[in-house]
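Please, structure for the following, as tokens.
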Amino acid sequence: MLKIKYIENFKENHPYLLIVSTKEGFLNASNFFINKKGVFLNDKNITGICDIGSLNNSNLLLTEDECKKISECFKQVVYAGEPRHIYIDINALADVEIIISYLEYDDLFA
């Protein structure tokens, strides 16, 4: 399952949406998003912990291209086999950096 957390002032006092998971969680989420459109990033089928703070849930609605993009990013981050993160953008969250992180930042969900 994915863990998603909005952090208002994470790095350089900039807002970030942090997504962390296990290898299995990222691969399951990748398969979930691969051929979808109009799906929420925080869909209950793939999300265990979700704290979107002051973000509006409608900002997490992904287009078909964004679903493909995030699916690929989920695969890339775990296939490195070591701690890694990737930054991505989605149109609805233009002012928020999204970090997909594997084996990093999990302590922020404690």
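DSSP finds two helices and seven strands in the chain. The helical segments are 23-33, 64-79.
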